[in-house]
Specification:
Layout (H helix, E strand, L loop, with lengths): L1 H15 L14 H4 L2 H11 L9 H11 L2 H6 L1 H10 L4 H4 L5 H19 L5 H4 L1 H31 L2 H17 L11 H13 L7 H5 L2 H10 L5 E4 L8 H5 L11 E3 L8 H5 L5 E4 L7 E3 L5 H19 L2 H6 L12 H7 L5 H5 L5 E3 L12 E3 L12 H5 L10 H6 L4 E4 L5 H5 L5 H5 L7 E10 L2 E10 L9 H5 L8 E4 L13
Parallel strand pairs: 2-4
Antiparallel strand pairs: 1-3, 5-6, 7-10, 8-9
Length: 507
C-alpha cells in the first residue's frame, strides 16, 4: 500500500507538472527530488550552495539513520516499478542471489559521482533514480503515450460510429484537460532515453530489483547510512534454517546460509518475516538472537579505481575542444545561471523540458560537451520561448533556473537574433516578407522595417526590409521558428548578448 500510494502521488504530481491554462504550477513533481539526499550532497559539493528546499532530504537521512533503507523499499517510485517488473522474473532466478561483484558496482558508481562533484562536475542526475524516472517519463514515455492516445481517438473519430465516436470524443476532451499534454511533444533523444529506461525495467527479468541491488547510487548512499542504524533483524529460537527467507528475499539481503544479514542491502520490505513458517524472524531494536549484520564489502582495487575515475573524469570531459566551438548556438532557458554554475546545479531531470509550452526545450547531446549531456537547450526548429511563460523556472529543483516573474522574464535576454541577408527574402530576392516582424512579441517590436530600393528582373522597386533592434531583442526564437524558409531560416538566434553572460555588449 505504501509503495503504490507513493507511486500514485508521484504520477499525480508528474501529470500536474504541465501547462494547465495558467502560468503557474502549484505542485511540481520536483518535490520528490527535494527528498533525495544524493542530489543534496552533490549539489553542495559541486556548487558550494544548497537550495533551501533540498534540505527536506535530511528527513530521508533521519529515517534511514533509524529504520534503514525504508525509502528504497517503501517510497521510491522507481523501486516500486522494479518490484512490479520483478514479479515477472522466472522463479528459478529469484532464488539465485546477485553476485557480490555486481552489488559492489553501485558503491563504486557512488564514489565516482561524489568525487566528480567535489571537482565541480555534477553528474548525479544521470544515474539518480528519481531524476532518471522523471526524465524517462517526460522525454520518452509521456510523448509516446500522448501519440498513442491521439492515434486511437483519431481512428475512432474517423470511424464515424455514432455512439462510439461521441463517447470517445467526450473521453478525449476529459483526458486532454487532465492527463494528456497541452500539445504533442517530440524530443530528439526520446528513443535513446526510453531504451535506457526500458533496460532498467527489463533487467528485473534477470534478477529482481537488479537496478536497486547493483547500480543505484542513491541506494548505495542510503546503504552506507544504514550501517549505523540501530534496527536489527531478529531471529528467534524457532528458526530451523529452512532457507525460505533467503530464497524469497527480493534484493538478496539474506542471501547466504550462515545467518548473516546484508544490512546495507535490505530495503525493509518485511517479506522474510511474513514468509517464515515458524514466525521466527522479526525486525526491531530489542536485543535478541539477531542475524549477524555483514558490512559493506568493497575491494581495495575497486575503490582506488573509482577514486581515480572521479578525479580524472572532470578534466578529461572539459578538455573536449568541440565544447567551446559548439556553444554559440547553445541557448539556455530564461533564468539560467551562468554556464559553469548552471552545469554544477542541473540534475537533468527534464522537468523544464516537460513544461515548455512550445516544445522548444530539448535535451542536449554534445552541444555543451559531455558535461552538459541531457541538460536543457533551445532548438528553435522545434519551438520557441513563449514571451510571458515562466514555467521552467518554477519546476527546477536545484535553482539552476531561477524563478522569474513575468516582468523579469520579459526583460531577460537568452540570446540575440541576426539576419542572414543571403537567404532573407527581401534582401536576397527583393520580395515582400513580414513574418518575423509580425510575430515578434516585444511590445515595441525588436524587428522593424526600413525602406530600400532594390533592383529586380522587373526593374527598381521599393520594399520593406527587416532590421533588428539589438537593445529590444531578447532572443526568444519565434522569428527563427516562424521563418517561411523552414529548411534553413534566414533569421537565426545565438547566445550572444544573453543576460547571464559576464561579458557586456558595446550597445
Amino acid at each position: 500500500m505504501s509503495q503504490w500510494s507513493f507511486l500514485a502521488l508521484f504520477l499525480t504530481l508528474f501529470v500536474l507538472t504541465a501547462y494547465k491554462g495558467t502560468d503557474e504550477i502549484a505542485y511540481p513533481v520536483r518535490v520528490f527530488l527535494h527528498f533525495d539526499p544524493l542530489i543534496l550532497i552533490t549539489t553542495f559539493l559541486s556548487s558550494h550552495a544548497v537550495p533551501t528546499a533540498l534540505l527536506l532530504s535530511l528527513i530521508t537521512v533521519a529515517f534511514t539513520l533509524v529504520f534503514g533503507r525504508v525509502f528504497c523499499g517503501w517510497v521510491c517510485p522507481l523501486g516500486t516499478l522494479n518490484d512490479f517488473m520483478g514479479r515477472l522474473c522466472p522463479k528459478e532466478r529469484r532464488k539465485e542471489p546477485l553476485g557480490e561483484r555486481v552489488r559492489r558496482l553501485k558503491y563504486y558508481i557512488l564514489i565516482v559521482i561524489l568525487v566528480s562533484s567535489l571537482f565541480t562536475l555534477q553528474i548525479a542526475g544521470v544515474a539518480d533514480p528519481i531524476s532518471l524516472l522523471i526524465r524517462s517519463l517526460a522525454v520518452a514515455a509521456e510523448p509516446a503515450i500522448n501519440l498513442m492516445a491521439y492515434t486511437v481517438f483519431d481512428l475512432l473519430y474517423r470511424a464515424h460510429i455514432p455512439v462510439v465516436t461521441t463517447g470517445s470524443e467526450t473521453i478525449y476532451a476529459f483526458l486532454k484537460q487532465s492527463i494528456l499534454a497541452f500539445r504533442q511533444p517530440f524530443f530528439y533523444q526520446g528513443v535513446f532515453i526510453g531504451l535506457i529506461f526500458a533496460a532498467v525495467l527489463l533487467a528485473n527479468l534477470y534478477r529482481r530489483r537488479f537496478w536497486c541491488a547493483g547500480l543505484c547510487p542513491l541506494g548505495a548512499l542510503l546503504g552506507l547510512i544504514t550501517q549505523i542504524s540501530p534496527l536489527k533483524r531478529l531471529v528467534g529460537k524457532g528458526c530451523t534454517s529452512c532457507n525460505l527467507c533467503v530464497q524469497e528475499c527480493r534484493i538478496g539481503a539474506a542471501a547466504d546460509l550462515k545467518g548473516e544479514w546484508k544490512k546495507a542491502e535490505c530495503v525493509l520490505c518485511g517479506e522474510c518475516q511474513e514468509d517464515c513458517p515458524r514466525d521466527a524472524v522479526r525486525f526491531g531494536f530489542l536485543p535478541a538472537k539477531a542475524s549477524k549484520a555483514a558490512g559493506v564489502d568493497l575491494q581495495r582495487r575497486g575503490v582506488i579505481a573509482s577514486l581515480c575515475a572521479g578525479i580524472f573524469i572532470p578534466p578529461l570531459i572539459r578538455t573536449d575542444p568541440l565544447t567551446k566551438r559548439r556553444q554559440g548556438r547553445l541557448i539556455r532557458p530564461p533564468g539560467a545561471l551562468p554556464e559553469d554554475e548552471f552545469l554544477r546545479r542541473c540534475v537533468r531531470c527534464g522537468e523544464c523540458m516537460k513544461v515548455c509550452l512550445t516544445n522548444g526545450l530539448q535535451p542536449a547531446l554534445l552541444e555543451a560537451g559531455l558535461e552538459g549531456i541531457w541538460t536543457p537547450r533551445f532548438d528553435f526548429h522545434m519551438g520557441y520561448c513563449q514571451y510571458y511563460c515562466t514555467l521552467c523556472g518554477q519546476v527546477c529543483p536545484t535553482g539552476a533556473l531561477r524563478k522569474l516573474s513575468q516582468e523579469e522574464k520579459a526583460r531577460t535576454k537568452i540570446g540575440l537574433a541576426y539576419i542572414d541577408k543571403n537567404r532573407c527574402i527581401p534582401y536576397a530576392q527583393g520580395g515582400e516578407c513580414i513574418v518575423c516582424e509580425e510575430h515578434c512579441p516585444t511590445p515595441d517590436k525588436a524587428i522593424k522595417f526600413e525602406w530600400a530600393e532594390v533592383m529586380t528582373p522587373e526593374g527598381r522597386k521599393r520594399i520593406r526590409r527587416p532590421v533588428i533592434d539589438l537593445k529590444l531583442c531578447i532572443g526568444c526564437g519565434i522569428c527563427e521558428y516562424k521563418c517561411p524558409l523552414h529548411d534553413q531560416p534566414a533569421i537565426i538566434c545565438t547566445r550572444l548578448g544573453e543576460s547571464r553572460a559576464d561579458e557586456l555588449l558595446p550597445f
